[in-house]
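In response to a reviewer's request, we include the raw inputs and outputs for one of the modeled complexes. The three entities were modeled together in a single run.
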Amino acid sequence: MDDPTQVETGRAPVIGPGYTFGTITDKISSIVLTRPTSTGWLIGFGISFLIVMVLLYAIGYLFLRGVGIWGVNIPVGWGFAIVNFVWWIGIGHAGTLISAILLLLRQSWRNSINRFAEAMTLFAVACAGLFPLLHLGRPWLFYWLFPYPNSMNYWPQFRSPLVWDVFAVSTYFTISLVFWFIGLIPDLATLRDRAQNRIAQIVYGMLAMGWRGSARHWHRYETAYLLLAGLATPLVLSVHTVVSFDFAIGIVPGWHTTIFPPYFVAGAIYSGFAMVLVLAIPIRKFYGVEDFITERHLENSAMVMLATGLIVAYGYVMEGFMNWYSGNVYENYNLWNRLHGPYAPWYYALLFCNIVLPQVLWIRKFRTQPLWLFLVSLDVLLGMWLERFIIVVVSLHRDFLNSSWGMYYPTRWDWAIFIGTIGMFAAAMFLFIRILPMISIFELRTLLPEAEEVKSE
Amino acid sequence: MKRARIYGLMAEFDTPVEIVKAARVTYEAGYKKIDAYTPFPIEELAEAIGFHKNGVPLVVLVGGLLGCSGGFLLQWWIATISYPINVGGRPFNSWPAFIPVTFEMTILFAGLAAVFGMLALNGLPMPHHPVFNVPRFAFASKDRFFLIIFSSDPNYNAVRTRAFLETLAPRSISEVPD
Amino acid sequence: MTVETQLATSVPQRSSNNKMEDNKPHREDVCPGKKHKLDLKTAHAQIAATKGPEYWRSLEELAGSSEFQEMMHREFPKGASEWLDAVSRRGFLKLMGASLALAGMTACTKQPLEPIVPYVRQPEEVIPGRPMFFATAFTLSGYASPILVESHLYRPTKIEGNEKHPASLGGTDIFAQASILGMYDPDRSQTIAHLGDVRTWGNFLEAIRGPLSAQKAVQGAGIRILTRTVSSPALADQLRSVLKLYLQAKWHVYEPVNRDNVLEGAKMAFGQPVETQYRLENADVIVSLDADFLYAGFPGSTRYIRDFAKRRNPDAGEMSRLYVIESTPTSTGAKADHRLSLPSVKVEAFARALGSVLGMNSGGDGVLDRDQAKYVAAIARELQSHRGSSAVIVGDHQSPSVHALAHAVNQALGNIGRTVVYTDPVDANPVNQTDSLKDLVADMRAGKVDMLFIMGGNPAYDAPADLNFADALKNTNIPMRVHLGLYQDETAELCHWHVNEAHYLESWGDTRAYDGTVSIVQPLIAPLYNGKSAYELTALLAGQAEATGHEIVQGYWQKQHPGADFDAFWRKSLHDGWLAGTTFTPKSVNLKSAAFPPSAVGDIKSIEINFRRDPSVYDGQFSNNGWLQELPKPMSKMTWDNPVLVGPAMAARMGLKTEDLVTLELNGKKVTAPIWIQAGHPDNSITVFLGYGRRRAGRAGTGTGFDMYPLRSSATPWFTTGVSISKAGGMYILASTQGYQTMDTGDGVTRPIVRTRSLEEYRKEPDFAQDDKPPAGLTLYPGYNYRSEPYAWGMAIDLNACVGCNNCILACQSENNIPVVGKEQCNKGRHMHWIRVDAYYQGDRDNPKAYFQPVPCMQCENAPCELVCPVGATTHSSEGLNDMVYNRCVGTRYCSNNCPYKVRRFNFLLFQDWETPQLKMMRNPDVTVRSRGVMEKCTYCIQRITQHRIDSEREDRKIQDGELQTACQQSCPANAIVFGNINDPNSQVSKLKANARNYGLLQDLNTRPRTTYLAEIRNPNPELEGQRSTAEHG
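The model returned the following structure tokens for the whole complex.
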């Protein structure tokens, strides 16, 4: 895929024919600057805004009463909150992967999807970040997890994976944010120069920080961008590794396993790309940018999903095998309980969603036809959520002492907050595509033949 | 009305190829204080105007080292000196458990160093700059490519320099008031 | 406020010692005088909001039903209950908080007026911050539990056993433990009332003066006094003097849980009422015929548990053997080496068969099947080979004939004087209480009653259904009905006058333990609501209106113990907690007749129903006690309810599932209640528990559970046949605190949780429990060195000794200010007990072996919980304690997830009551009161450790072994829990940990628990082994 414009391979190009620097710029910036706000956008944003209100209400009641309004109990001390946390964090990973890893791999096709993929990362991590805070018994003391000088001279306990989480997630959010913003600067400059409306000019001008595209600046810019990508790559791998430590460090059967880090990362990318597609497919349709987000992108994403999906499947197999092979009665029972216990149907649903159904992606039709791909992606998102549910709840509800076994029943408050974060995520995406270029204009320019000629000189 | 000082002479080109060529010629012609403005990064251009290495990597390295050592030392100091306490029978300095946070701190500091280092070296944010005085410069962020010879260049001469630029067959030439 | 000052001053401040002064300043702290709006309606609604669809339960699990569907069913309703009312539990507490204005004003500690004598062991005078201890006694159905009460500045806070008293030896029973909450119960009746309106003692005096003098004329022909069982010498003496004053007056006695059968049995055998005591320390073979003698409520159980446990040690002396023939599964049956599950109606046949083998002419028809007959033969052989060292114990439920038969058998075996001892009855008025109540009702209906004094008791609720006492009380227009009681209950409702009774911790009195020893009941605090005791009310009838309880009791004993040394005698008695020389001496009685008339058992083929006192709320008198309501019942681990127990076989036959609602019909009366499938319950028989379904109990008891009294008739108070069961349709959620009651898991593995062997196997392989012990020093990290510390605290729990009596749970709850969470939260698995007693069933569900395992925090040296706490809220002390720092906890619950023993408890909501003044007074000031959102757990009673460390350091010595006891250890009647310094090789706990039976729970995880267990050894009769499938495990 070195030459992005190659057509003879029979695979769709990463950018439609007949575009110039100018037309690309106009097309994308017009979405933000000139195009009137569509009713579809208003409805979509309205609905997601209402869901955000539900979220706020649920959070208010939670702070008023305590986590007892959820279904958590002893033995299942973690419920939806942690399930959703891991799910959202995982989704975030695709963005960084696309913008950082594919950049390092010189996968130029990434250029047209990395912008909103990064935005997706930010919003997903923001949603994820809510949960560790909300699930605390005394959320107003969350800052005790940070090492700050205090009168008690007491500090966080750095052997706890939860502290690692705090550092990993906050680092991840910070780096993703700056990475995203740096990527935006040149396009903000474009908008600044295109904007007719004075306020827009000022706002975009401020954000662009006076970018003028000097060759020297571009040179430093590219170095910094590349280095950031280089740093973000191990970071994104480390984040889900650390998240998986929350479980792997514990001694609970079903948690205490060394395979977690790799298969959590794979799972994260799996669900992440699913979310990218779930977002990209409607967006390219409604904003008519099929020429920038082409079948090629869909197909590549689908293939990444297929690959990571197989890694995840391998993870499940190894997990089950080790449960059995360990010869440990508690590990054995964990496997048995997944297959025959009260939550068995959820486990089979998980296997279907994550392993069986995605195999259709071997067929080109399912990789290239947006509708099919959209449905498969939804299925993967559901499957990955179920995976986290199985890991958190099913492992906890029956551990070592039979006397302490229990069940977990999510309450409506659990659902309200889960769905609420989905609304929050959607609302943020709607705002993003309305006020910022959802596709990186300047990186798209580099994909044009004219831009390539320089190199061929 | 007194005439504004001149910041430089700016030539406008249509394609990346042209600007790169123009930049090379200009540089070889002895103009060293020049710069080019493009709507997207063109690696060749930086060399063409004689800009080869930048300080960003060094800044990032320093940031990374700071984060790494700072991260570990913080944990080690807390666990063994500031508030040593027996946790689950583990030794005070259970360094393997300190690795994840150390790693994250490395990335965080290196990353922030990259961003702020780059901005600082580029002298950004800088809301106003003389080149913005040229109306057509708005196209620098769209599809036009600009080459500027600063008036501070020793070889700069309003007339001769303009004549020189003419030889590069630009789309237009404009004076950049300071 | 005016009323407030009035009442406050209504107690004169004179005081025998000047301690009141140091006391005063502290008044303010404990007397906030808060007032709250009382919103009982919504509150009751909230409490009642517990119905819902089916819930998965342990035995279903065993049977492998599809819980998933149930889960799906429940998900929404459960959600709904949380949605509509996340706070029902909070509401429940609110209401605890929304205590009557009166409570606020009276919630000031008042030192009792008369001199009370502290127990040496703590300073003789008040030192703020240091508790004092006073000896007194708690009385249940006439039998005293001798106790010491911990008092902080005249606030009683904790009840402990009186280790010097032969009936306690330091142990207590759950009812005594919980009685402290009973005293502070904000629902207690707080005023004298006339037809429900507030009145004063003065009003009452006026009201009865006239009628009383009128009675003088007719020799009190219209006076009836109804009491509970009275064992108090002073009160009995008073009542008798009243009867002398009014020759025609009558004194009736009634207890719903009475011992009429025991009494009649004794009369049948010896022609006179006698008390039967057992000397279990001398018994090699114990045969229980439906006797639950190892559980609170059986007279002397506290002492019996100690003696029994002593003989169950496989490492010292000969281990005794216990046979239990019982219907309703009990903790006694669980401890049996051989338990025969037999319907109550057949127990008599079994007894007769046994008797005839042993040479009685007791008949013994062919009711028994082959296996049962085999039991008879085997047991008979055992008894014969253990003459003089065996004991046959009969339960109160069994007919007089069975009791008489047992007397004869014990006599024939020469057990009298060795393992069985007869004395005078403890009951001061040993009459057949059922008959006594019958007479009363007859008189009432005949219009012979003008003045009815009901002193304690709640007959309107708990009298036999066929007597229709409530109706008699309501509709026979007795001119004056007076009720003396702790609560304005169902009976108070039907009386003209209600006098609020003083709790035993507030009043003077005397009482007898099962061995006859008299204890003086000292008040620990002046009556919170100026209540009156039965002594004072009786004195009023005897014409001494002004007599105080103190004068009465002291006066009586002065008469018994004339002489100059009375003061010394009195002080000593108060101090020790009993009166020297009052213990009954064994009396020799001889069998009058050897004939045992057959008692009427209905059609044995039809379904049998058993009526049993509830293991937690007894006959209903404790139904407003949150601690007892939430105390998991020994076998089912049920809280807050009294389902109908049905055996697995019968349930399968009738297609019943746990939590199905069924309608029971017995001679015309119907009751609808949920069922609970109880492993080990005999077939064709069901058990119902009394004491629930109260209408006027209070916020905890009202509307909780189901009232079974309507089914209970005076003719067959304990069991009868002919009950019909029909599905009523629908489900009823039952909150059991133990999710899964077997060590067998679905994949066919038996987990090594309770390690157990038979005596022979143990002799062959003593260290069987060590197989999964990890090699020492198996760790990447160098271990922490605790050996260099002066103390390393550890605990050893002897599973052989533990009889699952639940004392430890309540002792811990009382010592550590553990909140009550209510049924809905229990159902969600959010109960807060720091120590739990797990019950596991192994083998044949129709008659399984059962094991108890108390589980406190294991205080692991490699604590998994500490490692994962992000804020270091739980860390390790140098003495090896797994400390929990409440105010550092942010509530991630990670520690609980990572605790393999699941002993950590979390305040999911604001469980603790921060408002009710009474409950504030009750709290142990040495223990933090936890708030919402923090984790908590057993601390090995660190407040006690600290207290003793301070003392020992002041005296420049080390803490002596045994001087420091945890609350659970202290209350344990069986001495099953031993705590101490494992760095001292000579400490008792070190010795136990050196025992071959000692093993750590889940020790293969290398958590290195400081709490370890001594494996359970059973002593089965080889002859009977294989009688039932024995599950081998461990």
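As requested, we also summarize the result in words. The longest helix of chain C spans residues 67-84. The two ends of chain C are 65 Å apart (CA to CA).
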